[in-house]
């Protein structure tokens, strides 16, 4: 511990002699003396002459921000600048037609009842409760010929709420308990009458009108987009006009498909 101050004094003395040296020979002699001196600090510590310089800490955040991608997600739902892009209209028509097919499949066509109409009924398990469950999750619906449907409940406690759901629906069905199986309900399918046919046609027409309105709404959205593009001079007037003509043709085709689906279902109902 006492050698360090002495060593420091020797270094200062040598540096002072070097500074005051007036000739190159004296300067060279002083350098040689420095090299001969053992300037190592006791206990094997690093020499003063080889100590690393202190550098400024690197800014890690700068490297990370420059190498990593932009964390902000790209904007979604951007409107296309192409006036001929009618994808929004095509998607709207496809969704409306698909929904109409699903609604018509649940109706009694040709005197038969699609089991999907029963499976999709909502069942209220607890009295006074608001939570409902699809009937298909509580019981298995098995068609028995063209005039009978059997319900096989997973638990006996489901029989009463299932019966209430079927009776209160607009299917005009009356479940009957099976004499040999307490988990089974037998639902006879009555033959269609003129009144039941008219009611079914009325429901189908309402579904058709709903699909027609959906197609019309999709057309309106595209029309407003084209008008906005012309107003903001994003597209040329000729391109907007041609795009509108294509839009009208696609809309007319979609409306015709909706009407054809309804007419086909209506004919099948009237033949029953």
Task: Name its key features.
272 residues; alpha+beta; Topoisomerase I, Chain A, domain 4; Gyrase A, domain 2; two-stranded antiparallel ribbon; protein biosynthesis; Ribosome recycling factor; RRF_sf
Briefly characterize the structure.
Helices cover 54% and strands 9% of the residues. It contains 8 helices and 6 strands, in the order αααααββββαββαα.
- The secondary-structure element order is HHHHHEEEEHEEHH
Q: Largest sheet, described in full?
A: 4 strands, antiparallel
**Terminal residue distance:** 114 Å
**Percentage of residues assigned to helices:** 40-55%
In terms of structural class, how would the helical and strand content be classed? alpha+beta
CATH-defined architecture of the domain at 86-108 and 193-271: Orthogonal Bundle
- Spatially, the strands of the biggest sheet line up as 3-4-6-5
Give the C-level CATH assignment of the domain at 86-108 and 193-271.
Mainly Alpha
Which term fits the overall shape?
elongated
Low-confidence stretches: 36-56, 60-77
Strand content: 5-15%
């Amino acid at each position: 511990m006492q050698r360090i101050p002495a060593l420091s004094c020797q270094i200062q003395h040598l540096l002072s002699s070097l500074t005051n040296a007036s000739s190159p020979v004296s300067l060279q002699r002083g350098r040689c003396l420095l090299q001969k001196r053992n300037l190592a600090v006791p206990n094997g510590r690093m020499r003063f002459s080889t100590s690393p310089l202190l550098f400024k800490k690197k800014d890690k955040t700068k490297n990370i921000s420059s190498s990593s991608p932009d964390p902000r997600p790209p904007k979604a739902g951007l409107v296309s600048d192409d006036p001929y892009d009618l994808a929004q209209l095509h998607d709207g028509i496809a969704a409306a037609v698909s929904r109409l097919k699903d609604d018509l499949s649940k109706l009694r066509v040709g005197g038969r009842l699609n089991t999907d109409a029963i499976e999709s009924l909502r069942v209220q398990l607890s009295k006074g409760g608001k939570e409902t469950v699809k009937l298909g999750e509580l019981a298995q619906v098995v068609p028995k010929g063209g005039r009978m449907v059997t319900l096989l409940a997973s638990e006996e406690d489901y029989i009463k709420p299932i019966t209430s759901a079927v009776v209160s629906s607009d299917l005009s069905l009356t479940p009957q308990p099976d004499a040999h199986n307490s988990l089974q309900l037998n639902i006879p399918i009555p033959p269609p009458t003129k009144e039941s046919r008219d009611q079914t046609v009325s429901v189908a027409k309402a579904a058709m009108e709903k699909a027609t309105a959906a197609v019309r709404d999709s057309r309106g959205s595209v029309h407003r987009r084209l008008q906005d593009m012309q107003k903001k001079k994003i597209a040329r007037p000729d391109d907007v006009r041609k795009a509108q003509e294509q839009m009208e043709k696609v809309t007319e085709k979609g409306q015709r498909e909706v009407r054809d689906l309804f007419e086909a279902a209506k004919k099948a109902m009237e033949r029953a």
